Structures are given as structure tokens and as C-alpha cells.
Amino acid sequence: MTKVIRGIVAYPVTPFSADGGIDDGAFRCVTENLLRSQPAAIAFLGSAGESAYLTEEEWRHGARLGVETVAGRVPVIVGIAELTTAAAVAKARYAREIGADMLMVIPVSYWKLTEAEIFDHYAAIAAATDLPIMAYNNPGTSGVDMSPEFLVRLVRELDTVRFIKESSGDLNRMHAIHKLSDGAIPFYNGANHMALEAIAAGASGWCTAAPNLLDDRPARLFDLVQAGDIVRARALFYDILPVLRFIVVGGLPTTVKAGLALRGLPAGAPRPPLKPLVEADRQKLAEFLAALRVEPAAA
Amino acid sequence: MTKVIRGIVAYPVTPFSADGGIDDGAFRCVTENLLRSQPAAIAFLGSAGESAYLTEEEWRHGARLGVETVAGRVPVIVGIAELTTAAAVAKARYAREIGADMLMVIPVSYWKLTEAEIFDHYAAIAAATDLPIMAYNNPGTSGVDMSPEFLVRLVRELDTVRFIKESSGDLNRMHAIHKLSDGAIPFYNGANHMALEAIAAGASGWCTAAPNLLDDRPARLFDLVQAGDIVRARALFYDILPVLRFIVVGGLPTTVKAGLALRGLPAGAPRPPLKPLVEADRQKLAEFLAALRVEPAAA
Amino acid sequence: MTKVIRGIVAYPVTPFSADGGIDDGAFRCVTENLLRSQPAAIAFLGSAGESAYLTEEEWRHGARLGVETVAGRVPVIVGIAELTTAAAVAKARYAREIGADMLMVIPVSYWKLTEAEIFDHYAAIAAATDLPIMAYNNPGTSGVDMSPEFLVRLVRELDTVRFIKESSGDLNRMHAIHKLSDGAIPFYNGANHMALEAIAAGASGWCTAAPNLLDDRPARLFDLVQAGDIVRARALFYDILPVLRFIVVGGLPTTVKAGLALRGLPAGAPRPPLKPLVEADRQKLAEFLAALRVEPAAA
Amino acid sequence: MTKVIRGIVAYPVTPFSADGGIDDGAFRCVTENLLRSQPAAIAFLGSAGESAYLTEEEWRHGARLGVETVAGRVPVIVGIAELTTAAAVAKARYAREIGADMLMVIPVSYWKLTEAEIFDHYAAIAAATDLPIMAYNNPGTSGVDMSPEFLVRLVRELDTVRFIKESSGDLNRMHAIHKLSDGAIPFYNGANHMALEAIAAGASGWCTAAPNLLDDRPARLFDLVQAGDIVRARALFYDILPVLRFIVVGGLPTTVKAGLALRGLPAGAPRPPLKPLVEADRQKLAEFLAALRVEPAAA
Predict the structure, then answer these.
(1) Where in the sequence is the active site (chains A, B, C, D) (predicted)?
(2) What is the distance between the alpha carbons of residues B46 and B31, in angstroms, rounded to a whole number?
């Protein structure tokens, strides 16, 4: 049985160099910075990692580099977000080959998918490797909305689908997953702006790019709620909330890359059509980080 | 300075007799039942009290009967939900005359209101009495949606507007009220389905009709979160969640009256076009209450 | 069989005098102005008539005054928008007594209504008089959304419910009503901003307050589409569209009263909390009317 | 100056053979079938063409095959829907090389794009070739919603962006484009379910996959409205509406391929995770086509 990850699942951005390709050195620095944030796991090539904007070869390179850099210090999760089942299966196999520990799989739609279509998409990926899978729901970015009932069914009917990540931002979904599985299926919060409440509601973890900028504050928030210190948890949550909201509203690659540069850890620009953060927003982010006494990232 | 209410604000239904008028005896029984649920306050003539369906004379009768029955045991809040400012002012004055302790005011729209129109509506009501006012936002039933910024402005600019009740079900609103006022403005949760999380987020209280059916369980939930016993709080919350959701989804007057009848405390039917709960749903509610070992209400 | 109304159903505002009551003289002037706009019928006490903001006595006065003023020159429709079935039935009976020709009935919700509840609401009103009824769907103002299937069922199962007014602004609804009834149930468009298209789609008429400000332009638009002169219909529609949109976005009572004052036909202010149109918007409306060469209303 | 296309812009599906690749023979048959439907232009590799599911090489093959098959009989438009600007520019250049007449460009988002980001995306594509461009708005499939103001700005500021395709299904958008440009910018309707009304509102054309199944009926509808024969136009529209709605609700590749098979022109299955139409829906589509007396497609 897979060990359940409890705590923070940290998401790196994918740094690009001036010529537009992946910057391996910066990639390693960004990863080391995250490893200092007390994560329970690191997830490469998720939304924050601009996975959707990479070529297939870049994706493979990033996955391999991630596994090598982490080198077993924490479990490595690899994100798979593909329109076609064939491409998703190929990536799953590759992730297995290079030694990833888990897959996080989100269906992506151009044409709306039926539940039968989504189910078979997951089934094909699950059949391709023995890696445990986190089913990931994020209708806002993927265009696919999976109900709690369907997500629980995926876990029940597909052996290696064992975890759920919910990023719809709807507490009712988490409540429903908990009730439908009598608390037995670990679910993870992917909505930064309600991290305090999701942990209170029983989330096993919090999937977030925030540690890139906030170091171990997310991990401390998780621990405070677990310890029942609701007063200090609440105070910490409200302190970091402006940053949590800012990075989501402005788009994770854009804002996190700007914040990393402010911390002395340049990760390049996001890939066009995405643009670097505009100056007024960069100032605002700098003020948020200063108010929290966020320090430069170690080299 | 008004004492801040902390804990449960309990909402009675308004019982009708077979001829359609207010049933005074049942009204008193419903109120006594609520008083046994450890409420911090009781709020008459809110949404659950079918306020919108009463004639003006009935409304006055209900308000008076409420104040008399509670007889100072806990603070009494009276709900005001009027389309015209003139009618709202008249009700505010009446509530003051009969000895109510606080007003809960929600603007109601047929035609969409501008913020200037809503502000002056509150200002006129505030000017009519010296009673403290809870500004109440519930876009789903009232058709008016007041932003956190506007609600905080109401509290800052109108002396007697001191509290905010948020029923939009959006955690972001509570976070915003907390941040905008540095935690200084007490806010109350009006969304049953997220009570656990709203209390975790710092709500001063929970406005709910649930104690009609769940006795002191809501009060215990509130206390458990305050005490940092997040594990038992979560367990209690998930236990009562089916009832919390059921009474909201089915409409409070309809479902709570059905539940009270199941508990041996008949409160009549809701007023047409509202109908009594259909039999299949009544069975489901009975099962929910049985699973929680809810006992008959004391006579 | 009721004669089918074809063309414009014109909606007057309800003028108030300085002391806040209904201004009978202005009421008659507003009505006469509408009668000059080539309407197929006039509908009193609809949304534009601030019906929801009137006391019961004022409503009766307005209905009676409307019937008397029109004096049979065109059919008179009276609007009924009540939360309780009892109040709606009482108004239906009164409308019959004073000689109205048709009822336009919209259910209003505070608590969400089931279809069974809405159906019985209509059935009770239909049973109260022999007047033909137009079932009116306007979820935006009433909080009740009736599907095309349900509306067609109302017409099929209740003898005197014979017409449908659709104000949801969704063309699919009109298409569905047409298909479900093989074109046999007359439906009316209540969404000003898509009048051209609704008439093209087969609406029997257009329910609108626009003739208060635009005289017979709406009637001409209706006739041009019927005559197949799509080029001139389109040109006229785009000409008047800024006014059509303006009066809806700003709220009919507020904007139409401002526009009538600009035309030399003062109808007082809307009832608080509604406020008179702000000056900047009044200027904009004046420009729109000037661009269309709208003339002062005849005395 | 580019000649304005008036009438039907027809969209083929992309047929796959049993091994999953593009089926050249079927591709040519599908194209010839469309050429018999009186189209004003043919648009390859749009939404209906499963463009998003093709590899880059397949996309190039499809574009080339399309241009070759049409062989100048009508203008050929090629669809470009890419997440990265670099990929979009490369496709634009390729389309120019192979002799396409126009580009239809829709931005696609994973991360929400600012208007500055969308503008530069279009600017880069426009700078890459001299082909005229149709800016295409379809928030439902692409995740990007461009306002009428922004679309008009694109046309004004970028020389080769000359046309707008609106598929949001919101009549207000078409009205706004017409008003903002005084009728000077040709706009095209991409929402099948409101084709009658969009043409009445002044659309220069209708972009649709419907001719695959309905032959010249869409072209006749367009002509009837232009001719002012609103009665026959309406009758034809209501006749074909069930098919228009069916193919959109069920997803164009899935339903159109099923319909082509029913007509004796097999185009294979859509690409997984998309599945062939389920049997019950295939039956329903067969009935719709039979009711319209749609004949087998010519070989």
C-alpha cells in the first residue's frame, strides 16, 4: 500500500533561460529552495511548471531533471495533463522509467468529455504503469469538472488511483469526498485561498506553489491546524493570505517567477504569450514579501 | 459599546395554525425548544421565520411574541427585509418599542440597487432607532449582493451598524472582512454547509436554524473549534452535515417545520405557495435525525 | 378563444407625486402618451410600474385608474407578482372586478419554489377568475426560473393560461417553446436588447416600456420584421438599441421616469430605496434621445 | 483589400483510419461533400476538425491536403489554436507556404491571458505572414474570452486582422461589434443554435459544420434571411434546429462523424479520450436526419 503523503506538496516553476529553453541550473536552484521548505513531496510539471507550454522533449527533460535533483530526499510526483490519451500514456511510462514516485493526472478538454471518456482515459494511464495516481480536478484551468462521486469512483475502481486533489475551491466537494469514502480516501487541497479551512476540513495535504516564496510557512500552517492551535494557525493564514491570493489571481508561473527574482533566485520569464509580471504588480508583490520578512533564497 | 454575541444565533420558524394564522402556542414551544440549545441569541423573523410571507400585522405580532417569550434570557434580534425604505424604518421603530435588542437588516431588491441606494437604506434605518444593527448579506434569497468592502464601509460610517452576517457561502468574503477591518468587525456565518470552516476562519458566531432540530450540537461545534479540538469538531461537523445541507437545500421553513413535527413539536405547514415537505424527503430527514439520535423535543 | 395580441405590449411607469403617493394626473398623461405609440395592449403594474414597491391599496388604485384611462381603446393587462398565493388570488379577483382584460402572472420567490408549488400557484389564480393569463418568466427580477417545458405544461393543463412572456433573454427558451408547441402557443419577448431577433424567431409580440420614450418606433420595428424588410428593421433596431439597453441596465422605473421628465412629461421619482437617475446618466440618456430626434411628449 | 466572405463557412471533420492516423481518402470525400453544400469558404482544422488533438505533423498534413483538395474552388481558411505564440507563428507560416487564403486564429489559455498578452499573440501571428486573419472568440472551448471592444481594437490596430468570428452565443456581442464599428467590420456567427437571429442581426456569414450533414440547407437559410423571406427562413431554421443543437451539445467531431457514417460517408472515430457517439444518440441523430429527408452523401 502506498504511504499517504501528509503535509505540503510543493510545486516548482520551470525556469527558462534567455534563449527560451529550460535553464537547468536555475531548475536545480528552484528545486533546492523548495526542498528547504519542509515539503512532504515535490510535484514537477504541474500548472505552476508551465507543463502545458512545453514541447514533449522539454517535458521529458524537466521530469528527468526533477527526479535527479530531488534524489530521493522526498517523493517526486509528476504532473500529466494531456488532451489525448495516447500522449498521457506515453508520459506516464516515461515517468515510471526515470524513477518518479507518483503521477498526478488531470484530464484536459477541448471538446467536453463524458464520464465514460474520462474514466477510460484514467484507466489507460493506470494500466500503463504501477505508479500510484493522484486524480486531479481543476475545472478552471483544464475545462473538465469531475464530481466528488466520480472521483471517488475512480479511486474505488482503478487500483492505482489512490488520492484526490481538489482545486475547484468548493468546500462542498471536499465534504462530499470525505462523506462518500467515510474519510478513507486522502484528499488534497489545491486552492491556496482556502488552505486554512481545507486543512480544518480534513485534507491530508496542501498542493501549492507558495513555498517557492513563503518557505516553510505553509508547512507550519499545516502543522498548527493539526496541533489544534487554531488561533496561531488563523493568524499565520491571514498573514500569508495576500501572497496566496496574489499568486493565484496573477497566474502562478508569472507571479512565482517574479517573486523568485525578488528573492535573488531568477527563474526567467514565462513563455509567450505569457508575459513577465507588470511593474506595478511586481511592486505590490515586493511589499507583500517585505511585510512577511521573506528573506533572499539561499544560493 | 454593544456586547459582541459569540456563539450560536438561533432562528425559529414561525408556526401557523390550521386556519393559516400564527399559532401562538406553537410559537412559544418552538422558542422554548431553541432556548434549550445553548444559543447566544435568538433571531426572530429571519428567512427561516417566513418573514417575507407575513402581513405587516403578523410580523408585528411575531416580533412582540418573540420578545415576550424570551423575556430577557438571551438577546433578541429581529429581522427586517423590506423592499421599501419606509416599511423597513417602520419595522425598526416597532422593534425598538417592543424591546428587541438588535436588528438584522437585509436589503431586498426587485430592481437592482446601487451602493448609494443601499447605503441610504441602511442610513435611514439606523437613524430611526438606537438599536445595534447586523448588516446581512444573502444574495441568494434577497437579490442584493454587498461586497466585503461595502459591508465594512457600512460599519465604519454608520454608528449603530456594528456586525456583519455573511450568507453568500464564499469564504473569500469572510477573509476580506477580517483583513479589511484587521479582525475588528465581528462577522457571523450564515452558511450552514461551511460552519466548521467559518468558525475556523474566525467567525464570531453562526446564525442558524439548525438548533431547532439538532439542539446544542451547533453550540458544541462552535465550542470545540474555539477550544482547538479540531479532531472532535471535524467529527461532529461531518455527523451533522447531512442535516445542515438538507435543511438549506429543501428550504428552511419547509424542512425545519417537517423536522419539528418529527420531533413531536408540530409547527404547521409553510405558507402557500410553499408546500409541506414531500413524503420521500420527510423519510430521509427522519433517517438523518435517527442516525444522530435526536430525541423528541421537550414539551 | 382569446384573441391573440400581436405587436407591442406597452408598460407604463407608475408616477408618484412629491408626497410619495400615486400621482393620478401624471398617471393619465403617461398612459395617454403610451396609447399614441401604436400599442397592441397596455400592461399596468408590471416591473416598470414599480408594482413590487406599492402597498396593496396603491396597487388597486393603479389598476383601477389604468382600466378607466384606457377605456377600452386597447386591451388592458394587469401584472400580478406576489410571494403568497393568497395575495395573488385577491389581486386577480380585483382585476376581474374592475374590468381588466388579461392577467400577467409572475411567481416571486424568497424560498426557492418547486414546480409543484409554482403550478398550484398558477392553478389557484386561474381558478379565481375567467380572465386569460400570460405566464411570465423573468428569473432576474423574480428569483424563479421556469423552463420552457414547464411553461408549455402550464398552458396545456390550465385552460385560461394561454400566453407566455419570456424575459430571461435566452433565445433557446423561445426556440424551445416554439418547438414544444409546434408554434401554437403565442410567446412574447420581454428582453429589450434582443427584440429584433425575438421577432425574427416568431414572437407574437414584444412587452416593453420603451414606447414611453421611443413612441411608435418599437411598433414600427415589429411591423418591418413582419413585412420581411430586414434591412430597415435592422437599421431601426441598431438605432434604438442604445436606449433599449440603457433603460434595462439602469432599471426601468429609474430610467424611464428620467426620460419622461426629459420629454416634458414628469412622472416623479422612483420610490426609495430607488433613487432618481444620477446626473451623468441623465445627460447620456438625453443625448441618446436627441440623437433619435425624440420629441417632447404631447400634453 | 480582402474580399469579404458572405454566406456559409463550412467546417470539415478530420477523418481517421482504423490505425488512428489521418485517412486521406475519407478526408477528400468529406471535403468534396462540403463543396457541394454551396459554401462561401471552407475552414480546415477548426474545432470540428479536432485540430487540438493532432500532432504538429498531422496538422501540417491536414492543412496541405485541404488546400490541395479544394484546389481554388472556394477560399480556404486554416484554423490556428495554439497555447504558445511560437507554435502559432510556425503554423501561420506553413499555411502561407501551402497556399491557404486566410487564417482563423483563436488564442488558447491554460493560464488566463491579459489583453496585452492576447494582443501580442495576434500581433506576432499577423507579422508572420500577409494572410488576412479572422479573430475567433469561443470562450467555451478555448478558455479565453475577448470582449467586443478588444476584438474591434484588434481589427483596427492590426492591418491583416479583418474579420471577427463570434461563438460565445451572446447576441449582445454581435450588437456591440456592429455598433462599435458602425457596421464596417464583418462578423461571423459561430453559434449554430442562433443562426437565424445572427443573420438577422447582420452577420456576414455563418461558420458551421452543419453542412456535413445538412448539405445546402444552411446556405439556403442564409439566403432566405438576406432576401427578407422571414417566414420561410424561420420555418427552415426550426426544421434544422434539432440537428444544429444536437451536434453542438454532443461535440462536433463525435456527432458529425456519426452523422457522416449514417450518410454512407464514413470518417472514422474521434481520437481518444473522445469516443464514438453512443448508440441511443446515434439513433436519435438518424431520426433527425430522416425527418429532414437527408440523403446519402454522393460518393
Answers:
(1) 136, 165
(2) 14
